[in-house]
């Protein structure tokens, strides 16, 4: 039985990796100018299939987790308008910013939310602080980038983060 579960997991991982490869070949020329949301992060969980650290089930992780100390400042990755800023399910305190060309950025597990829906923000503007709200095992920023609602791998958009990746 364990062997079957392992094989199914391996097949799912291959499919997930091919999906990520498809995204990596996509053009990001329509992305707005981006800045890093936090200083000196360590990637502790990558985009794609993973075993959820709390729920203990294999699920698609639609963003990346960036570990930094609690209270670290979180900045908007690009100019945009805040469309959501409240607690939301497993994300805990969540901010969603709408950018140009159908892109959104999502910032989860925040300790403090410093913006409100309708607020225009600039790239690099402080929008919140890192926390561990929602389904989190410790302080980190959960970052998602979406295009027309479809999650994109932030490590393909911010490739220099991969050198600090834990796994």
What does this molecule look like?
The chain is of the alpha+beta class. It has a single domain, classed as Glucose Permease (Domain IIA). The protein contains 2 helices and 12 strands, in the order αββββββββββββα. A hairpin with a 4-residue loop joins strand 7 and strand 8. The longest helix has 23 residues. 29% of the residues are buried. The C terminus is likely disordered.
What layout of secondary structure does this protein have?
Layout: H1 2-24, E1 42-45, E2 48-51, E3 58-61, E4 64-67, E5 73-75, E6 80-87, E7 93-98, E8 103-113, E9 120-121, E10 126-130, E11 141-147, E12 150-152, H2 154-157
Antiparallel strand pairs: 1-4, 2-3, 4-11, 5-10, 6-7, 6-9, 7-8, 8-10, 8-11, 11-12
Q: What is the rounded distance between the termini?
A: 27 Å
Secondary-structure-derived class? alpha+beta
Instruction: Give the low-pLDDT segments.
Output: 5-25, 163-167
CATH topology: Glucose Permease (Domain IIA)
Biggest β-sheet description: 10 strands, antiparallel
Global outline: globular
- For CATH, the homologous superfamily is named as Glucose Permease (Domain IIA)
């Amino acid at each position: 039985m364990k062997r079957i579960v392992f094989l199914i997991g391996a097949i799912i991982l291959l499919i997930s990796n091919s999906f990520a490869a498809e995204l990596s070949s996509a053009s990001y020329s329509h992305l707005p100018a981006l800045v890093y949301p936090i200083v000196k992060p360590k990637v502790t969980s990558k985009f794609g299939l993973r075993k959820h650290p709390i729920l203990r089930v294999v699920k698609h992780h639609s963003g990346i987790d960036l570990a930094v100390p609690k209270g670290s400042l979180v900045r908007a990755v690009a100019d945009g308008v805040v469309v959501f800023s409240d607690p939301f399910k497993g994300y805990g305190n969540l901010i969603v910013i709408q950018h140009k060309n159908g892109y959104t950025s999502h910032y989860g597990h925040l300790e403090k939310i410093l913006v409100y829906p309708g607020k225009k923000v600039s790239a690099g503007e402080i929008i919140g602080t890192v926390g561990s709200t929602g389904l989190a095992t410790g302080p980190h920023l959960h970052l998602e980038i979406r295009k027309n609602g479809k999650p994109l791998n932030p490590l393909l958009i911010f490739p220099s983060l991969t050198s600090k990746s834990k796994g």
